[in-house]
Design a protein that fits this description.
The chain is of the alpha/beta class. It contains 14 helices and 6 strands. The protein is 45% helix and 15% strand. Strands 1, 2, 3, 4, 5 and 6 form a 6-stranded mixed β-sheet that branches.
């Protein structure tokens, strides 16, 4: 360097990703509640012939968890991980490490599959039972509509071209892209095309105990068998006041406290008002969830339902101040 030239000094500052995540960040609370040790064990068998560029199934599972937690599409999730330091930290990436592109997430969902995710959900639920957070003494059961498409003009045109007289649940599988979605009805005039989500909520803690997806034309009473708890009292609306629901509850040794319809014998309006008041706080489990489905078919939407239930329970556990659980 010639005499008189300026000497430029560069200061290098070492920053860890952990230091960039606030101590009170909710992702830290999730990690304090759930160590993911059991999840890692269940996902280990999927590590063979890893087609996901070496990211590892546990890290990809955490990516999917955040995807449903934040309600992101695959492309939005790719950008989220690129830009969000807390997201990188939670999923196990370093500050400068390359994160997955959008195409990896669909492959990961397919590789894990609904069956493996159901085992993860069940294991987490069993641990919550062991900690006394799910007791199944008092349970809330209900179903909500999931819309696949808001308009069926294309399907109608195909049905007309094929000379079908009506566009109904018998014709739809022949003309629709989603072969498993159906037209459902609630009450006398609320129709939708898609699926139905059935769920059981423990009324002590507000945690989701069971969740199931069916085509929209499956009645609440028919879907009850998928989410009926193993014991306790079950509070439900008029849709569950059927012989089939009572039979299902009896098999599980549950007491079904369903509101009776107006034309039923022995209807007690005061009792029904009390049941309605007891049930009302737990309606929020359904009111705050997305009513549009992401995927085609029962299996893929069941995967989404399990993920959404896990996310809901984690958020609920934070509100219950349960970081000391150390779930595996």
């Amino acid at each position: 360097m010639a005499l008189g030239d300026k000497i430029i000094m560069h200061q290098v500052e070492m920053v860890s990703l952990d230091s960039l995540v606030p101590d009170n960040h909710i992702y830290r609370e999730f990690r304090a509640i759930w160590s993911f040790a059991g999840v890692e064990k269940k996902l280990k068998k999927f590590e063979k012939d890893n087609a996901y560029k070496g990211f590892g199934m546990l890290r990809l599972f955490k990516c999917l968890l955040l995807q449903f937690m934040e309600d992101h599409s695959d492309r939005e999730m790719e950008r989220f991980l690129q830009e969000n330091n807390a997201g990188k930290w939670f999923c196990g990436f370093s500050l400068a490490e390359k994160t997955p592109d959008f195409s990896v997430f669909s492959k990961a969902r397919k590789r894990i599959g609904t069956k493996a995710l159901s085992l993860i959900f069940s294991d987490l639920r069993d641990q919550l039972k062991a900690h006394g957070l799910i007791n199944e003494v008092f349970n809330f059961v209900d179903a909500s509509a999931l819309i696949s498409k808001s308009q069926l003009w294309k399907e109608r045109d195909k049905a007309i071209k094929a000379k079908y007289e009506k566009l109904n649940n018998e014709v739809l599988p022949k003309v629709a892209h989603d072969k498993q979605a159906r037209i459902g009805c609630k009450g006398k005039d609320k129709y939708w095309y898609g699926y139905k989500k059935h769920a059981s909520v423990d009324m002590q803690s507000g945690l989701i105990n069971k969740v199931a997806i069916t085509p929209a034309n499956v009645t609440d009473a028919q879907g009850f068998k998928h989410v009926c708890p193993e014991q306790g009292a079950v509070y439900a609306d008029k849709a569950y006041c059927t012989k089939a629901s009572r039979k299902t509850a009896a098999k599980k040794r549950c007491h079904l406290a369903a509101i009776k319809k107006n034309n039923m014998k022995g209807k007690n309006k005061d009792l029904d008002r009390w049941v309605t008041k007891i049930r009302s706080p737990y309606e929020r489990v359904f009111s705050k969830q997305n009513k549009r489905v992401r995927y085609v078919g029962v299996e893929k939407n069941q995967f989404a339902a399990f993920m959404e239930a896990i996310c809901f329970n984690l958020k609920r556990l934070v509100l219950l101040d349960a970081p000391s659980l150390s779930l595996t």
